[in-house]
Write a structure and sequence with these properties.
The complex is a heterodimer of chains A (414) and B (154). Helices cover 39% and strands 16% of the residues of chain A. Chain A has 414 residues and is α/β, with parallel strands linked by helices. Chain A folds into two domains: 135 residues, Aspartate Aminotransferase, domain 1, CATH 3.90.1150; 256 residues, Type I PLP-dependent aspartate aminotransferase-like (Major domain) (Aspartate Aminotransferase, domain 2). Chain A starts with 8 loop residues before the first helix and ends with a helix. Chain B has one domain: Sufe protein. Chain: A (Alpha-Beta Complex). Chain B is built from five helices and three strands. In chain B, strands 1-2-3 form a three-stranded antiparallel β-sheet, with helices on one face. The chains are: A alpha/beta (414), B alpha+beta (154). Chains A and B meet through helix 11 of A and helix 1 of B. The complex binds pyridoxal-5'-phosphate.
Chain lengths: 414, 154
């Protein structure tokens, strides 16, 4: 087996005890990091250490443990802000429940205050439902228009009518990387063109943040949402980055404790900054786990991680082309460097669920279905794909096993 | 691997590749749609019920081998049966998958003994019980049938 990258995958694998599990009696081949990445030992340990030594509610107690819990929670905010290169890392990160809630916050707070009849929001046909449905829900109340950027035959974004769509738009809300096609979108260009048209830009970083450096300052993003559990962190916490000037003008999202300056019987005064959007007890242990996850990813280096994903993707694409051409179709750009470690596969005459079922007996974990992107599936003319997505712990052995299992699938259903 | 062969029995693969009673019927036949949002399976069931008997049935739709073969096997099993017999078959089929009457979740209770022979070829779907996620695929057409029988006033 030839080495595939600067990442020392064998050493990385040591950090993931879960990979030693053999639920099917064979080596676990985890190719579902796009749905949720496995947490390394350090993340689990940071969370349990916190739970066993420091647990307390934040922003309330004055005793030492509560102070320490508050410190760790706010440090997580700072770590996330630094990770995405926010200009004001302590003031521009809001913790939510997941990436989906981040978009709901954006729509119900910023959208509620800024969108009305005659306004336009531009999305794309390759969005996850998380960046479609919240806008549609708001649209039903506020009556603005939603326009969609299309995709081309080579499964990249169709930019031919971008300026037309952006004309008069207030917001372009778009994914940096398709969770189905693996397509990496030209966010810097989109950001510049949205701003030139007078629109803001919100980016769905769910698939991009685990794959490459996302620098909100360099990209000049107004908003960025992502899910820590796809970046080797825990579930139960999400991130919304928003420029400080936007947060200052946005009305609260959920109401309750923690998000107020004052409450009287006849009304309330909302808190400033990120706290305004964090009603109730936040995910504290999860924030601690997130800090550990980002430190872990940074220690490996996002450049090495991207290069690793790219090599695995090229290896898999070449193997499919060589051994399974005409039988297995890759739904997405096939030979593009602008591609993340996501491979959506379809096999003629075999449903994605059946592919995934056979792969499971080889220990190969892939995801069948529509991947919460039904408009895109309709555009591709398929009702489901089997999606393999790569993480830092995958190696070419994993891909070889997947290819072997695909052969078996075809044989079974032929 | 043994489980997999139990899941994908030859009969199932045959019904998946060559579905029986494929298509749709014109009114007065009733038309009922069923969806499994999990994997996007879709079933369109056309039923022609005359004098309490299912005189014709057609199945359209798309989905995985389990949902589609289950629909095909079901159509062959219920054609010509009375409504009462079809309803009883729904019960027996779900029992085979360790499901209660309205229950989508396999129960822990000791399953009542069922007469597998009364199920004929449908018994081939027994292996699905070992794959909890796929049970919804196997029951889709049966739940659609129950709904269709209700809608056709039976
Ligand atoms: C592109 C994209 N956006 C949004 C989400 C939603 O993430 P979550 O389910 O963690 O809210 C996902 C993952 O499911 C995704 O891949």
């Amino acid at each position: 087996m030839e080495a595939v990258s600067d990442l020392n995958v064998a050493a990385v694998r040591e950090d993931f005890p879960i990979l030693q599990q053999t639920p099917r009696g064979v080596r676990m081949v985890y190719l579902d990091s796009g749905a949720s990445a496995l947490p390394p030992h350090g993340v689990v340990e940071a969370m349990s250490t916190y739970q066993e030594t420091t647990h307390a509610n934040v922003h309330r107690g004055v005793y030492a443990t509560a102070e320490r819990a508050t410190f760790l929670y706010e440090k997580a905010r700072l770590d996330v802000g630094t990770f995405v290169s926010a200009s004001h890392p302590a003031d521009e990160i809001v913790f939510t429940k997941n990436c989906t809630e981040a978009f709901n916050l954006l729509a119900q707070s910023w959208g509620e205050a800024n969108l009305g009849e005659g306004d336009v929001v531009v999305l794309s046909e390759m969005e996850h439902h998380a960046n479609i449905v919240p806008w549609q829900q708001l649209q039903a109340r506020k009556g603005f228009t939603i326009k969609f950027l299309g995709i081309t035959e080579d499964r990249t974004l169709d930019l031919s009518n971008l300026d037309e769509l952006l004309d008069g738009a207030k917001l372009l809300s778009i994914t940096a990387t398709s969770n189905v096609l693996g397509t990496i979108n030209p966010i810097k260009e989109l950001s510049a063109r949205a701003h030139a048209a007078g629109a803001l830009i919100a980016v769905d970083g769910a698939q991009a943040v685990p794959h490459e450096t996302v620098d909100v300052t360099d990209l000049n993003l107004d908003f960025l949402a992502f899910s820590p559990h796809k970046v080797y962190g825990p579930t139960g916490i999400g991130v919304l980055y928003a420029k400080r000037e936007h947060l200052a003008d946005m009305p609260p999202f959920l109401g309750g404790g923690g998000m107020i300056k004052d409450v009287r019987l006849d009304g309330f005064l909302p808190a400033d900054g990120p706290q305004r959007f964090e009603a109730g007890t936040p995910p504290i242990a999860e924030a601690v786990g997130l800090s550990a996850a980002l430190a872990y990813v940074s220690s490996l280096g996002l450049d090495a991680i991207s290069a690793h994903h790219r090599r695995l993707t090229s290896y898999a694409l070449a193997a499919i082309e060589e051994q399974l051409a005409g039988k297995v179709t890759v739904q997405g750009p096939v030979d593009s460097p602008q591609r993340a470690g996501v491979l959506s596969l379809t096999v003629d005459g075999v449903h994605a669920h059946d592919i995934a079922q056979v792969l499971d007996t080889y220990g190969v974990c892939v995801r069948p279905g529509h991947h919460c992107a039904k408009p895109l599936m309709r555009r591709l003319g398929v009702n489901a794909t089997a999606r393999a997505s790569f993480g830092i712990y995958n190696d070419v052995d994993d891909i070889d096993t997947m290819i072997e299992a695909l052969h078996a699938t075809i044989k079974m259903f032929a | 691997m043994a489980d997999l062969e139990e899941l994908y029995r030859e009969i199932i693969l045959d019904h998946y590749r060559n579905p029986r009673n494929r298509g749709e019927l014109e009114p007065p036949a009733t038309r009922t749609e069923g969806f499994n949002p999990l994997c996007g399976d879709e079933i369109v069931l056309s039923l022609l019920v005359e004098a309490d008997r299912i005189v014709d049935v057609k199945i359209a739709g798309s989905g995985c081998s389990i949902s589609q073969s289950s629909g095909s096997l079901m159509s062959a099993a219920i054609k010509g049966k009375t409504v009462e017999e079809a309803r009883a078959l729904i019960g027996t089929f779900k029992q085979m998958l360790s499901l209660g009457d309205n229950d989508e979740v396999a129960s822990d209770a000791e399953p009542a003994p069922i007469n597998l022979r009364s199920l004929g070829e449908l018994a081939a779907l027994q292996g699905v019980a070992k794959f909890p996620v796929r049970i919804k695929c196997a029951t889709l057409s049966w739940n659609t049938l129950a709904q269709g029988l209700d809608e056709s006033g039976n």
